Every structure is written in structure tokens, then in C-alpha cells.
Amino acid sequence: MPNVEEIKQRIEAAIPGARAEVEDWTGGGDHFKATVTAAAFAGRSRIEQHRLVYDVFGEEIGGPIHALSLKTLSPG
Amino acid sequence: MSDTEQNQIHEAIAQAISEHDTILFMKGTPDAPACGFSARTVAALQALQAPFAAVDVLPDPRIREELSTISQWPTIPQLFVKGELVGGCDIVMEMYESGELAQTLGVEGDGADDQELGDEAQAVAPGLTQIENRLG
User: Fold this and answer.
1) Among A58, A71, A69, which residue's Cα sits nearest to residue A24?
2) How far is B32 from chain A (nearest CA, A)?
3) Which residues of A touch B (CB under 8 A)?
4) Which residue of A25, A28, B44, B83 is most buried, as measured by CB atoms within 10 A?
5) What would the pLDDT profile of B28-37 be if each residue is shown by its tens digit?
């Protein structure tokens, strides 16, 4: 079962320079909400930014991670 | 499960995306969404009074599988405008709030319009039936 800390660490490890704030949306351990800030997002569309994060988890999205709601930002 | 059948589903989805200016793949129907994310996305489209076609992915898991192969996007809902993936619930809501969604959809963009929601779902029915039939 994924947890908030594991999801945060995996995003930060996979996307160079990323900072992630993750919360368990429902308390059930399968609906998460993440705000991710990364220089890597600059110049990319929202779709591409979200794909970068989804790609960290691959098939787990829709599986053990039922939902990962995202907000992506590039550092201002 | 036959590959031919899977290919037919793939083709039907690709065709539906190209045939409809605005098409939403969702869980459930606009009148009865089966998931909060789908419900919010439908509500945003309806608030802008944007006509859209809708496809329920729930009747056959292969619809979702093939859709994700086409879109390279793992979650439902997925909104396509003029053949391009616009996003899922998070992106659609962000764009709704910023006014970009109205722009993308080519509709007048004051989301504050407080007219009753729901009428637009009618525009959905023909597309929905057509696609469901095709997806067998």
C-alpha cells in the first residue's frame, strides 16, 4: 500500500529538483493529492507536466493508487 | 479476448475522438456520473454550456485500456477537443477557473452564469448511443 511519504520521495527522486507536497485525500491510502514544483516543468504544457509525474508510477495509477490528483508548478 | 475485437475498439475510440469536436471519456454518464472526478468535469462543461459527446468507459474495461494507449494518459476522465487531449479532471478544473477552458472550447466564458445545469446533456445522447453501439 503506497503512503504519502513514499509517493513524495518517489516523485522527488524521479524528477530532478522536484519538490512534492502529498496528502492522502480520503485517509484511505489510495486517493492522493500532490502539488509538485519542478524546474523541469518550465516550457511544458500542463498535460506534459502531469505526464512526467504520472510516469513515475506507471501502472500503479488506477491500480493501488486509485487516484492521484495533481497540481504542477514551475518555480517562480 | 481476440486481438481483432481489441483493434476494433481502438479504431472506434480513435474515430470517436476525430468525429467529435468535444468528447469526454468518463465513468458513468453526464446524467449519472459514477465517479466524483467525472462528475466535476461534466459540471464544468455544463456550466459553460458547451455541447459535448460523452463515452462511458465502464461497460468494457478494454475501452479504458485502448483509450489510455491512444492518449498516453492513465486516468479517467479524459477530455478531447478537436482531436487533442486537453486533460483530466485537475487540468479541466484549473482551466475552467482561469477561463482557459471557455477559450479552448470556443464558448462564451463567464462561468458565473447561474442557469440550471443539465440541458446540455441532451446534446450528448446521439453521440453516446452511436459510440456505444460501435463499441458493441
Assistant:
1) A69
2) 20
3) 46-47, 50-51, 54, 61-62, 67-71
4) B44
5) 999 999 999 9
**What domain count does chain B have?**
1
- pTM comes to 0.84
The strand pair at B22-26 and B53-56 is best described as parallel
- Its CATH architecture, for the domain A4-73, is 2-Layer Sandwich (3.30)
Tell me the C-alpha distance between B103 and B98, whole Å.
10
pLDDT for res B109: 61
* Least CB–CB distance from A47: residue in B74, B75, B85: B85
- Nearest chain A Cα distance for residue B87, angstroms: 6
**Average pLDDT rounded to a whole number, residues B35-62:** 96
How long a stretch of residues is chain A? Answer: 76
The residue range of the domain holding B83 is: 3-134
pLDDT value for B2:
78
> pLDDT tens for residues B108-119?
765 444 444 444
Report yes or no: B78 and B55 within 8 Å, Cβ to Cβ: no
- C-alpha B94/C-alpha B74 separation (Å) is 19
Which residues on chain A are in Cβ contact (under 8 Å) with B91?
A: 46-47, 50
